[in-house]
UniProtKB/TrEMBL annotation:
Protein name as it appears in the record: NADH:ubiquinone oxidoreductase, NADH-binding (51 kD) subunit
Domain 4Fe-4S ferredoxin-type: 593-622, 623-650
Keyword DNA-binding: no
Record-level Gene Ontology MF annotations: 4 iron, 4 sulfur cluster binding; FMN binding; metal ion binding; NADH dehydrogenase (ubiquinone) activity
PANTHER family in the cross-refs: NADH-QUINONE OXIDOREDUCTASE SUBUNIT F
Record bears the keyword Membrane: no
Amino acid sequence: MNNLLDKCCDKCTHEPQNPCRDFIKCIKEGPICHDDAACRQKRQELLANIHLPVGSDKKNILICAGTGCTSSGSKKLVDVLKEELQKHNLTDKVKITITGCHGFCEQGPLMIVEPDKTFYVRVQDTDVPEIVEQNLVGGQVVERLLYKDHTTGELSKTYNDVPFYAKQQRLVLHNCGHINPEDVGEYIANDGYAGFVKALFEMTPEEVIEDVKKSGLRGRGGAGFPTGMKWGFVRQAQGDKKYVVCNADEGDPGAFMDRSVLEGDPHAVLEGMMICGYAVGADEGYIYVRAEYPLAIERLKIAIAQAEQYGILGDNILNSGFNFHIKIKAGAGAFVCGEETALLTSIEGNRGMPRVRPPFPAQSGLWGKPTNLNNVETYANVPYILRNGGENYAKLGTEKSKGTKIFALTGKVNNTGLVEVPMGMTLRDIIFTIGGGIQNGKKFKAVQIGGPSGGCIPEENLDLPVDYDSLTAAGAMMGSGGLVVMDETTCMVDVAKFFLTFTQSESCGKCTPCREGTKRMLEILTRICDGEGKMEDLDTLERLGRVVKNTALCGLGQTCPNPILSTMRYFKDEYIAHIQDKRCPAGACSALLVFKIDPEKCKGCGKCAKNCPAGAITGEKKEPHVIDATKCIKCGSCLLGCKFDAIYKA
């Protein structure tokens, strides 16, 4: 930790364990208890080391230490960089800052050199000496490490020049990739805890709730319930004990929004929970985070310890009389625990299974006490709302969907990663402007939005604005923010089968519609993909989907038919082709594949025969070869190995 939170001089009356209510203001603006020029100057110098002014002779190198970049070797960059700085006597002139996820995971490991904001991508430890010599010593940019646009070939020198970031509006993610998540001082230097202090000393709990209502913030975990309204229910509920719970059980395949916020800006989540605790009358909070997120858990523990050390969290916070404690509960990875009542049951030490509602958690939640439960992104929005006012926040987004939304953009798209966009931006802008279009020049087919319980949106709906109501009308849902892009090689029947396989295996089995309905639907989809389907299966699928959707106990069962219903709505011709023609139009279902060799293109080189593990290909040298369909195991090795494009899927 840096010295931002330390006492500046002996005149300071603030003790780390017993700070006054002006603690945050003192840090940001200088001493409140006395007017000492030297003390004030020291504060300014400390803040300047975090926010380097343009033209500064000092440098700050930001290195992404999120899970994605760490797995690509970013930790090595820190070690090598320290060695190189020592060689060039730059240790005192260059600061190294580890950060959370920048979002542009596909280009990691990432490095930013401030104050010029030079943005380097896919940096390896072997590149560090060149960066130090050419950039830090010589003042020249290492062009080969700059981002290069997929279509235009243009280089982007700075972070803000990269098209991936240009159309984003990063409110929740504004600190991620720019501050050290393990240093509470850097969080405070970026207006951290200012919203909490404002709520605590300038607003009543009812005024805080009203401000959140004015913001129009809706829950970012899936259903989109108005946050302020939920807080109001908990505030009004009778009980001698109340709880605030954060749902960080992010289980959607391909989703990593919550993980990145927890890794990159954990104090924002703590602050949001503390504001909520003050507003609803709770003194204890739990963060339910899956055990598969070890880095997020580690940084949460650090953040909680630092906040407690400086009296921002704990008993009698800032001498206000308000008490609030936060504990971490590591989940075992059950997808159903993303459902609020199953999550609460798991915290209580029981098997995570949903409860019948009502009563809702706002009346009877954790251990039967009134409980407010929001997800990571929802809480992380709250500090911004309190700092800037609910009415200002409400200016962002659409009429019924305010603010921004974070998406994990994955699949067959050039720029994968974490994006935060204003509500109402079209899918086309997200996929083709921010995402850089479809990989390898292939044709866009669909986008799965909302995770395994979401729906598939086709090309004709690419101009659909991303908001809660528009997506629901299109047969999808906002969900937690998974966005999986598919191209022409994707079979939509197989996609529905893939997601249903996931939800069926994750069903807790408590209610019959979900337990039996998902199994029957999966059996039908498997038959269709294997070429054994019947036309009446389509009616059965749709009927089963509606029944499960309307009668399942919890959100997992109620939404798991969405991939089936949406693909049948927009891609029914593919289902019919599988059933009537025994053909997979995308060539993805192996049971329906037939590999053939074009005799006019085949040169008789024999490579395909050598590669075939089943011995299904025969032919004389320099003569067209043939494939014996009865022996072919449809592995595709012949197709991948042919240099003459003579082999094709029939």
